[in-house]
Design a protein that fits this description.
The chain is mainly alpha-helical. Helices cover 52% and strands 8% of the residues. The protein has a 3-stranded antiparallel β-sheet. A two-stranded antiparallel ribbon has the order 1-2. Helix 2 packs across helix 5, helix 6 packs antiparallel against helix 7 and helix 7 packs across helix 8.
């Protein structure tokens, strides 16, 4: 595809199919997200609602606020994909600001509304966060291993019988953490209490109760580091305590390559 077929933004040319990181060098899911946007609605969950100031009631956001949050999540996911593939901020900028890339709509709307310097500053902040997330995430041996483990996690979560209201709430929380893990590229991921509560559509009080009474004791989630301020906590998403048959090799690899050692071991 030639650059001449597009109308470039001022002082910027787009070479998104050239160099070491074209779309062909990214996973198909990442390329689809960049080209087509969030067709499945994965990143919309929680974008159009928020917790009230009392931390108990879920309120709807205005359409513009919800769209902005949704767009930011898409942008952050793309940035993580680019960082994980060994890309640069310049390559991310080219991908996001290309006029035919639906996944870059949020960044381009900032440029249109507030100017190119503001858009570039936004992309720099997203890139810094994505780079930190990816560098602190201990990747599995290969991308295939990562998808295999995350697929196993999703299957395990969705097929577990979650009884009574608290169990169903725990399922919503696990689905939220699984979304974060998929963005991070493995079971080790970052998530703040606010992000998780909004993603799951519950209050922070309910979230803490589910962590303490269901998910942590049940072996589903382990908090490795507590976050402070806007920094999310570091979490490890596991398969629960009940025995799982038929996957010993995968579980062995998952433990030895991903699971952080317990203190004193």
């Amino acid at each position: 595809m030639s650059d001449s077929t597009h109308q470039p933004l001022p002082q910027r040319q787009f070479t998104h199919l050239r160099g070491p990181l074209g779309l062909s060098h990214l996973p198909s899911a990442a390329a689809d997200l960049i080209l087509l946007g969030d067709l499945t609605g994965r990143y919309a969950t929680g974008s159009y609602s928020r917790l009230s100031s009392d931390g108990r009631t879920v309120l709807l956001r205005e359409d513009r606020q919800g769209a902005a949050e949704h767009g930011h999540r898409i942008t952050a996911a793309i940035a993580c994909h680019v960082a994980r593939a060994g890309g640069t901020i310049d390559q991310l900028t080219q991908l996001l600001l290309h006029p035919e890339h639906e996944g870059g709509r949020h960044a381009r709307s900032i440029e249109l509304r507030s100017g190119q310097p503001r858009a570039l500053d936004y992309i720099r902040r997203v890139w810094a966060s994505a780079s930190e997330t990816v560098s602190s995430t201990r990747a599995l041996g290969s991308r295939h291993d990562a998808y295999e483990v995350l697929t196993l996690l999703r299957d395990r979560i969705e097929t577990t019988p979650w009884r009574v209201e608290r169990g169903r709430t725990a399922l919503r929380v696990l689905r939220a953490h699984l979304n974060f893990a998929e963005i991070a590229g493995g079971p080790l991921h970052h998530a703040s209490e606010r992000q998780t509560a909004e993603e799951a559509g519950i209050s922070r009080t309910t979230l803490r109760a589910v962590y303490d009474t269901v998910l942590k004791p049940g072996g589903w989630l382990r908090r490795l580091r507590v976050g402070h301020g806007r920094e999310g906590s570091t979490w490890y998403l596991a398969l629960g305590s009940a025995p799982i048959h038929g996957t010993p090799a995968l579980l062995s690899r998952l433990w030895t390559t991903q699971f952080p050692p317990r203190p004193g071991t």
